[in-house]
Amino acid sequence: MFDVLASDHRRLRCELRQKVKFATSGVSPVTVGDDVMVTPIDETVGAIDKVLPRRTAFFRPAKLRESERQVIAANLDRLAVVGSVVSPPLKTGLIDRVVIAAQLGQLTPIIVINKVDLGSNGELAEVVRTYTSLGFPTLLVSAITGEGLELLREHLKDHRTIFAGHSGVGKSTLLNVLIPGLKQATSEVSSHSGRGKHRTTTIELFELPHGGLVVDSPGLKVMGLWELERDDVADYYPDFRLHAVDCRFQPCSHSHEPGCAVKIAVQEGKVSRFRHENYLAIRESLEIDL
Ligand SMILES: Nc1nc2c(ncn2[C@@H]2O[C@H](COP(=O)(O)OP(=O)(O)OP(=O)(O)O)[C@@H](O)[C@H]2O)c(=O)[nH]1
Ligand SMILES: [Mg+2]
Ligand SMILES: [Zn+2]
C-alpha cells in the first residue's frame, strides 16, 4: 500500500492497480516522489491508475538483484547526505558514494554533519574544507541545540530533498525539529556497537511548513553505484583533475602507476587523503570494464 499526498494536502491510502505493476519492468514500479493518477474510492482510500514519467531518480543496484536498478526516490531535486561527528563516527566513504549517486540521478547534493554538540575533531575541519571547496554546501548542525538549522532550512525551502545516510546519524530527529508536529520514531545509537538501530523502515515524504518537501529514509548500510564504470569514477573527483594532467601515464587510474601526480598531490597535502582513499575503494568495488 502507498500513501498518496493529494493536491489538497490530504493523504490517501492507495493500492497499485495490477495493470500498473505489469506495465513497468524492474523493481520500482512506484516509489516515493512519483507523480501518480489516482481514483479515489472513498475519503481516505484510492487506487493508483498511472505513474507519470520521472524527472529525476535517486537509484542504486537492487539488493540481491544487482542487474536491476532500484529507484529509491523519484522527482526530487536535492539530496542531503547526513552524517554525524561521533556516535556513529563520520564516514566519508558513504558521503562520497551518496554524492556520486545524487549526481548520477540529477540531484544536487548537500552535506549535513549532525551532532556537533558532541564535539568535533581535527578531521572534521578538513572534511568541511574539502567538500566546501568542491562546491558542495557543507553544514554543521545539531538537532539537539538547534545550531546550523536556520541555514539548513534555507537550503531546503522550496526544494524536494531526500535525507540519506547511515542509521543513527539523526535524519528522523532533524526532520522532527524541522517540521513541527512530526513524530518520526527515533532510536538511540547502540552503546555496544556504536551503530544505529535501523529505526526508520519505510521511506516517506513530508511537507515543510514554509514550502518544499523532505523525504525520510531508512539508514543506508552501503550505497551501491548503478552503471558506474571503474574508469569513470575519477569524473566525480574534480579535486584530482588539476593534478591528473601531470601523471606520467595517460590515462592514469591514480592507483598503482608510478609517477602519479594525484598520489604526489596527496602526499604534499594538496588533495585530501580521505578523498583518494575513498576513490580507490569505490574503484575496487566496481566491476572491471570489459
Ligand atoms: N547528541 C545528539 N544526538 C542526536 C542528535 N540528533 C539525533 N540524535 C540522537 O541520535 C539517535 C539516532 O537518531 P535518529 O533520528 O533515530 O537517527 P536516524 O538517522 O533517523 O536513524 P535510522 O532511522 O535508523 O536510519 C537518537 O538517539 C537521537 O536522539 C544531535 O544533534 N545531537
Ligand atoms: Mg530514522
Ligand atoms: Zn595518476
Task: List its traits.
alpha/beta; metal-binding; globular; 3 domains; EC 3.6.1.-; 23% strand; 290 residues; binds magnesium ion; Ribonucleotide Reductase Protein R1, domain 1; binds guanosine-5'-triphosphate; OB fold (Dihydrolipoamide Acetyltransferase, E2P); 26% helix
How would you describe this protein?
The protein is an alpha/beta fold and 290 residues long. It folds into 3 domains: 52 residues, OB fold (Dihydrolipoamide Acetyltransferase, E2P), CATH 2.40.50; 144 residues, 3-Layer(aba) Sandwich (Rossmann fold), CATH 3.40.50.300; 56 residues, Probable gtpase engc, domain 3 (Ribonucleotide Reductase Protein R1, domain 1). The chain is built from 8 helices and 12 strands. A 6-stranded mixed beta sheet has the order 9-8-7-10-12-11, with helices on both faces. Strands 1-2-4-3 form a 4-stranded mixed beta sheet. A hairpin with a 2-residue loop joins strand 5 and strand 6. The model has no long low-confidence stretch (mean pLDDT 94). The structure holds guanosine-5'-triphosphate, magnesium ion and zinc ion.
Would you spell out the secondary-structure blueprint of this structure?
Layout: E1 2-5, E2 11-16, H1 18-23, E3 36-40, E4 45-51, E5 57-62, E6 65-74, E7 78-84, H2 92-104, E8 108-114, H3 122-133, E9 138-140, H4 149-156, E10 160-164, H5 171-178, E11 204-207, E12 213-216, H6 238-244, H7 261-267, H8 273-285
Parallel strand pairs: 2-4, 7-8, 7-10, 8-9, 10-12
Antiparallel strand pairs: 1-2, 3-4, 5-6, 11-12
Helix pairs in contact: 2-8
The structure holds guanosine-5'-triphosphate, magnesium ion and zinc ion.
